[in-house]
Amino acid sequence: MARDRSEEARRLLEEAHAALEADAAEEALDLAARGEGLAGPGGDPELRADLRLARASALNQLGRNDEAQAAADAILAENPDDLDAMLERAFALWERMRLDDAAAQLREILRRAPEEAWAHHTLGLIAERRGDRREAERRFRRARRLDPGEFPEPPCLDPEAFDAAVEEALAALPRQVSRWLENVAIAVEDVPADDDLLGADPPLSPAILGIFRGAPLAEKRSMDPWSHFPSSIVLYQRNLERFARNREELVEQIEVTLLHEVGHFLGLDEDALRDRGLD
Fold first, then answer.
1. 176 pLDDT above the threshold of 90
2. What backbone phi and psi angles, to 5 degrees, belong to 186?
3. Alpha carbon distance, N-terminus to C-terminus of the chain
């Protein structure tokens, strides 16, 4: 009976990994949790740790980073040398804007595994947020050399070319969408400001591609004077460029991001946007 439960837990682990590869984080979370239940506290500790790691990865993908950190901490409490758990923990800290803690964890990973591309890349993201572009580019180049498939050269554009890409994306929007943007300013910044990220509870991800600032459309019809300040959509150039592998993908993602933020302007929350394929 115990062997049957262990075999079923391994099957669920394989399916969870496949779901993570397919960006189906909710499915992966369910599969990993079911597998943990089957593995149980008295089962194979390595299998239990692998299932918990899959759960941590799914939680990070879903933005539930405090839970992801707790899952990684549980693995590390049993096996302090688990580099994969350290990496998931570092990702969770980075997403929660705990930059010093994330950097310390990443440096510890590199002390043990100097060729870990994700650690170099994430340290680059932290350096970029801190305004150290030279260190950021050094880390990004190192990650690209170590894993060019995972970290291809992004389509970095000068400000004029990026503005042209934004205009191209705006022109491609359907009229029923673009008409809502007539009184909404479109701005471009390199990366999100701390105030934009930390002003939300929980904090927004530093990897967000854009943000809507201002009152939703319905509130603009209210008597609240604050709701009548101009609304704006801000696009984050560096994050968008990293998201794309070429200029065509960049323009497409700018369009998707604009659609997403228009949804916020119209009062849609993240769940409603996800239901419409705009997450």
1. no
2. -110, 120
3. 42
Are the C-beta atoms of 42 and 61 separated by less than 8 Å? no
Q: In the predicted model, is pLDDT for residue 215 greater than 90? A: no
Q: Provide the whole-model pTM.
A: 0.86
